């Protein structure tokens, strides 16, 4: 055991005075940060005593305190998404519009008329309000909502084809996030999937030959998280629906991402749309609420009135129904989507898609200048590519601007991975992208009011280091 090692440890009042920990005090409170400092110092003293280790530097101790605080915080907390993935599944997909967040706030602070008709005083239907808005938005005969799109698909298959065959192209049976495979999800419905065609080519004749006395439905699944390009062939939804009608079958169009129509949202092209599926004659069209619509997580079903009635009356509907918070956020989002100009201003995803590249460059330059002035990191602005993510438009890049942080690194932040981790566990948490040995802060999915917090988060880690004094 080395007495100098103990003497080299900073006292509590010196460590807690570090700018990074002072910033944490503003977020967590002095008592929480003081407790973290004392615990970290006690653990270091044990390590020195037991292993005859040397004392860590103040920089290293500060990082340990910040890491301790990150583990002592609520598990679910806000992050700044600097990855360039707009619908990042790990980060909660689409952020809500401010009117949607306000709507949630209004209904959670007390009681609300979730299933109560205020005019008649009798029991009401919880999805009636949003269903009416979805019908207005899409032109469908009817609509309903469940807790996510996988649930929508299970309900559609269960009500339309329980115990019978559903024909689907082999190339559309994909694996989605979390290692869930669509055939396994679909089979929960009680329907039997029958694959037709091949991975890269499926023709109308493949469906025609496969239809038999046990067939109930034709299913199109948009394989939104990947694309097969080159030597490919698929059947348009209009031809599929026409074949189904001629054979007395049901057509289910599972869109997943859910582009409403041309220009909704703006900047997205080549995606099958809800409007296309309905006009083609699909009996049910299914899509997500938290992807291209830019709303809360839910699954939306639109289509023929009799088909929606069957879905809504299924006993499983109660297990998959949405709560008042989801309904409030969805209703507010749908009101915005009825006016594309309003949606482009207020729905964050739609706004991210329409922000001019020149605007992102200007913001990136301001951020880079501030960070460079506070450290000796290599800091510059680069053009890069962002992506929609969340299983939407997987290969189409979106031009973006990013602040690139590079070496020299400190002993405590000895690599791009160490800096990225330190940003992730900081306050606020920042999730960057690592590229070619550097850390990129992509601005495409960052709001203007987050720029200052982003700069502060970086400077707390890289400012006043040995090379930055």
Characterize the structure shown.
With 469 residues, this protein is of the alpha/beta class. The protein has three domains: 3-71, no CATH class; 79-93 and 352-462, Aspartate Aminotransferase, domain 1 (Alpha-Beta Complex), CATH 3.90.1150.180; 98-346, 3-Layer(aba) Sandwich (Aspartate Aminotransferase, domain 2). It has 20 helices and 15 strands. The chain has a seven-stranded mixed beta sheet, sandwiched between helices. Helix 18 (357-373) runs parallel beside helix 20. The chain starts with a helix and ends in a 7-residue tail after the last helix. The model is unreliable at 464-469 (pLDDT under 50).
Note the topology.
Blueprint: H1 3-7, H2 12-16, H3 19-28, H4 30-51, H5 58-71, E1 79-81, H6 98-108, H7 128-138, E2 142-146, H8 149-161, E3 165-169, E4 175-176, E5 180-181, H9 182-187, E6 192-196, H10 204-210, E7 215-221, H11 237-246, E8 250-256, H12 274-280, E9 284-288, E10 299-303, H13 305-313, H14 316-320, H15 324-337, H16 340-346, H17 348-354, H18 357-373, E11 378-386, E12 398-406, H19 416-424, E13 429-431, E14 433-435, E15 438-442, H20 451-462
Parallel strand pairs: 1-13, 3-6, 3-7, 7-8, 8-9
Antiparallel strand pairs: 2-10, 4-5, 9-10, 11-12, 12-15, 14-15
Count of β-strands: 15
Rg, alpha carbons:
27 Å
In CATH, the architecture of the largest domain is 3-Layer(aba) Sandwich
The largest β sheet comes out as: 7 strands, mixed
* Quaternary assembly: single chain
The percentage of residues in β strands lies in 15-25%
What count of structural domains?
3
Count every helix, treating DSSP H or I runs of 4 or more residues as helices: 20
The neighbouring-strand order within the major sheet is: 2-10-9-8-7-3-6
Which fold name is given in CATH as the topology of the largest domain?
Aspartate Aminotransferase, domain 2
Helix content: 40-55%
Poorly predicted segments: 464-469
| The CATH homology group name of the largest domain | Type I PLP-dependent aspartate aminotransferase-like (Major domain)
What is the CA-CA span between the terminal residues?
A: 32 Å
Question: Helices and strands: which structural class?
Answer: alpha/beta
- Based on Cα principal axes, name the global outline: elongated
């Amino acid at each position: 055991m080395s007495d100098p090692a103990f003497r080299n440890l900073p006292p509590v009042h010196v460590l807690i005075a570090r700018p990074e920990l002072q910033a944490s005090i503003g977020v967590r409170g002095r008592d929480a940060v003081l407790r973290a400092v004392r615990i970290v110092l006690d653990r270091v003293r044990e390590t020195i005593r037991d292993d005859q280790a040397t004392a860590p530097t103040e920089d290293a101790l500060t990082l340990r305190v910040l890491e301790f605080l990150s583990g002592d915080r609520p598990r679910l907390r806000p992050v700044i998404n600097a990855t360039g993935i707009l619908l990042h599944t790990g980060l909660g997909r689409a952020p809500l519009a401010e009117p949607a967040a306000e709507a949630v706030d209004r209904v959670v602070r007390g009681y609300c008329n979730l299933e109560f008709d205020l005019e008649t005083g009798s029991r009401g239907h919880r999805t009636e309000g949003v269903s009416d808005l979805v019908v207005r938005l899409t032109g469908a005969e009817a609509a309903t909502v469940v807790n996510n799109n996988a649930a929508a698909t299970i309900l559609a298959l269960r009500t339309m084809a329980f115990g019978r065959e559903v024909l689907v192209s082999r190339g559309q049976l994909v694996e989605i996030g979390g290692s869930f495979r669509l055939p396994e999800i679909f089979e929960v419905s009680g329907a039997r999937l029958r694959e037709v065609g091949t991975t890269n080519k499926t023709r109308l004749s493949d469906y025609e030959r496969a239809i038999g006395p046990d067939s109930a439905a034709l299913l199109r699944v948009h394989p939104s998280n990947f694309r097969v390009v080159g030597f490919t062939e698929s059947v348009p939804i209009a031809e599929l629906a026409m074949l189904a009608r001629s054979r007395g079958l049901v057509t289910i169009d599972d869109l997943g991402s859910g582009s409403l129509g041309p220009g909704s949202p703006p900047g997205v092209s080549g995606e099958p749309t809800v409007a296309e599926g309905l006009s083609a004659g699909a009996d049910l069209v299914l899509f997500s609420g938290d992807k291209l619509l830019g709303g809360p997580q839910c699954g939306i079903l639109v289509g023929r009135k009799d088909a929606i009635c069957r879905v809504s009356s299924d006993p499983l509907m109660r297990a998959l129904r949405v709560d008042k918070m989801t309904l409030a956020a969805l209703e507010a989002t749908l009101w915005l989507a009825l006016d594309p100009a309003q949606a482009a201003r207020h729905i964050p995803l739609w706004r991210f898609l329409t922000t001019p590249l020149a605007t992102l460059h200007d913001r990136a330059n301001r951020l880079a200048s501030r960070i460079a002035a506070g450290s000796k990191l290599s800091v510059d602005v680069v053009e890069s590519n962002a992506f929609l993510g969340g299983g939407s438009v997987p290969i189409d890049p979106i031009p973006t601007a990013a602040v690139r942080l590079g070496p020299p690194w400190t002993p405590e932040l000895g690599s791009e991975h160490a800096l990225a981790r330190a940003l992730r566990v900081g306050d606020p948490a920042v999730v960057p992208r690592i590229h070619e040995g550097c850390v990129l802060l992509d601005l495409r999915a960052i709001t203007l009011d987050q720029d200052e917090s982003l700069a502060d988060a970086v400077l707390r880690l890289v400012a006043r280091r040995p090379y930055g004094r």
